[in-house]
Amino acid sequence: MSALLAFLAAAEPAAKGIDPWIAFFSLITVVITVGMGFWTAGKSKSAGDFFVAGRSVSVGWNASAISGEYLSAASFMGVAGMVMLNGYDALWYPVCYACGYLFLLLFIAGPLRRFGAYTIPDFAEGRYDSPLFRKIAVCFVLFIGFFYTMPQMKGAGTTLAYIFPGLHYSVGVIVVGAVITLNVSLGGMKGITLVQAFQYWLKVFAITVPIFVIAAIVGHYQSHLEANKTAQETVAAAPAGIERKALPAKAPKDEQWIAPFGSLTTKAVDTAIAAAKTPEEKAALEANKKPYSLLYTYSLIIALVCGTAGLPHILVRFYTNPDGVAAKRTTMWVMILIGVFYVFPPIYGVIGRSLTPELYNAVGSKGTDKVVLELPTLLAGRDYPLLGSILSGITCAGAFAAFMSTFSGLLVSMSSALAHDIYGRMLKPDASPEQRLKAFKWAAVIIGVVSVGLGTQVEKLNINYLVGQAFAIAAASYFPLLFMSVWWRGMTMKGAATGMLAGGLLALGSIFLTTLSDVYGFAGLADFWVAHPLLRILCEQPAIWAVPLSITLMIVVSKATAATIPADVRMKMLVLHAPEALGLKQEYIKEHEVLGGH
Amino acid sequence: MKESNPTPDPIHSDAFLARLMSGQLKLSIACAFCFIVALVALPLLNYFQPEFMAQRIYGFTLTWLILGVLFFPFVWIISFVFIQRSIALEDSEAKAALDGLKK
Description:
The complex is a heterodimer of chains A (598) and B (103).
Chain A: H1 2-11, H2 20-41, H3 47-52, H4 59-70, H5 73-86, H6 92-115, H7 120-128, H8 131-163, H9 169-218, H10 221-226, H11 254-258, H12 263-275, H13 279-308, H14 312-315, H15 324-342, H16 345-355, H17 371-374, H18 385-427, H19 433-455, H20 463-487, H21 493-518, H22 523-531, H23 533-540, H24 543-560, H25 569-577, H26 591-595
Helix pairs in contact in A: 1-2, 2-9, 2-18, 4-9, 4-15, 5-16, 5-18, 6-13, 6-15, 6-20, 6-25, 7-8, 8-9, 8-18, 8-19, 8-20, 9-18, 9-19, 12-13, 12-23, 13-20, 13-24, 18-19, 20-21, 20-24, 21-22, 21-23, 21-24, 22-23
Chain B: H1 14-48, H2 50-53, E1 56-57, E2 60-61, H3 62-102
Antiparallel strand pairs in B: 1-2
């Protein structure tokens, strides 16, 4: 170990500021990940192993793996950064990320597993007997997948650039992309299940241990929260010994930061107020400010809760459970594991506001987003240089685990869509099991290369913004599709497709409009937003209208095309809902067929 | 195939499916209702009772304590109750249906 450290220290003498501990912990994470990939490669043999891990993953393993896959760079670094930047309102993100699983548990997890498919497009085709619908569903899997991949890649690029100052952004993207692509093509779903489960526990360790140590030295969560005075308090009631650095001008004021309806939800109206010319206009806008921010809050909640229940790369993991009851139990454990994790990132944001306020002066990955990585290094200046380095190394390792595990899950779900749905079902339905396996490996490589390519292009975009887009689109497309298909016998393929496409595409379009003005500086649109702050909020957070629209369209079009309800819908519904004890379980994909020669 | 059976057995009847689905759906909706009430109520309380929600409890403001800490165990309780009842419901339905088949 010391030889390795010496090597690391000597290898980069020119690039000053590389902390050997940070490099060491990051390297260990990568080495263990690759090692586990090779170790499991020998155990993954059949197509079933690659696509659904042989449908034999136990509740504990699967819950850890789903949690490991779900806690992405946005969770690990982004949530802390958002709480530091926006205060109370940003708490909705971790809460809804975790609690969205309740909808999945209540309405979708058990029935979806009982249907016994490999992928969500399988379910789409099987439920409506429509190959066309499979094609539409495949497009959406790839689409949402790539949207979600880009922020992971961005996290990889910026974290590596943070650890090795001077390293180009794209190097991190390529390194992480290559490692994960290798892992997925070696072991498929079975291989990454183990890796992701390990990475969940690594992430929990990496977020909890440093903050306990930091809090013990610089003061606790509630003490630092108390240092921010509310609107009623005239003096901050911070207990003695709580240090607080002066906030820069860009930072939100205490009473806005700690209270609901702060800068995150009032941005659109604030911009309009700043541009208003007459006092009457200003007064009218001021009156609207609070109701609009309430609307923004509700729309955000809907997008996050419904979006969680509609992310294809998470849903596909439920097929790895042995049965419907296990799928339900897994979901409950996922909520507990994720909930425990999400209590901690906001603490980094709160303490970061007191001690690293200089981060407010930069944007995105150079600003508050890196508070999780930055905060432990403070200890170095407080007579604990070694401890600061070690803890910073641990949080960096956690960040590594975060974008590696999420990207590997996305890669499996997208490779499955390509290899199983497009190759195995559309291009070559009579492919042998060996050919399907080979197709999976090639698909992983193709998707991996495309993801790296896309990842190098998004350096300027914000991690949470990209993730939010993926959630809003999933909320307006997959969630209504799954919810209605599972519970309403009257759904037709046309109804399902119309609702899903209209909801998903309109949500995407309206989010894209806000990107045009914010990221690409489209001036005409920016003026329009200033004149119409309500429209701006509805475009930035489309879930509040897109989800009901999608469900309404599904009902209306299905009623109009009721003649095309699948003939055996009763049998399909029975398979979805009947307990396994009745012996009705007929896997949509039969293992012995897939295994062929065995 | 089971569908081609001219006289459907109890398991393949519409009545059985309707009972199975409505039992589960009622349970799911009841649990979802508790969750949705909390999700809708918290922003409303923040909106209409800001001073009440801003009072300090152990250094947290009340609303921060609820959203940042207490919301998680609340949802765990709902999911735990749901799983217990859902599995019990399935077991009793399966038992009743299998008993019906034997007769």
